[in-house]
Design a protein that fits this description.
Layout (H helix, E strand, L loop, with lengths): L2 H39 L1 H4 L2 H30 L3 H4 L1 H11 L1
Helix pairs in contact: 1-3
């Protein structure tokens, strides 16, 4: 494999990360927030134990999208590494992604 081929694959990987990751992040966060609003606003959902778990799951999913996918987009697409700039993120990133 030539170095130009590897370089073009790296560039394609960055472009895919940016152009697929950002809409996925926006749709995921928006969908999770809308799920949370629906589960918290309707009375029938507030009285159901299952809806409580779905609400918590939606909140956790939004958090995972922000910490996981946003970090991946910034690191792979824009060469911004949070682990070098944030001591908190560096220490707790393993807990956030699991």
């Amino acid at each position: 494999m030539s170095s130009s081929y590897i370089s073009s694959l790296n560039d394609a990987s960055k472009q895919i990360t940016i152009y697929v990751g950002i809409p996925t992040l926006i749709a995921g966060v928006l969908g999770g927030l809308l799920n949370t609003i629906v589960f918290l606003s309707l009375r029938t959902f507030r009285e159901s134990p299952c809806a409580f778990y779905l609400t918590i799951m939606s909140i956790v999913n939004v958090g995972q999208m922000i910490t996981g996918l946003l970090a991946r987009i910034l690191t792979s697409g824009f060469n911004i590494d949070w682990s070098l700039t944030s001591l908190f993120y560096c220490k707790f990133r393993l807990y956030c992604f699991q």
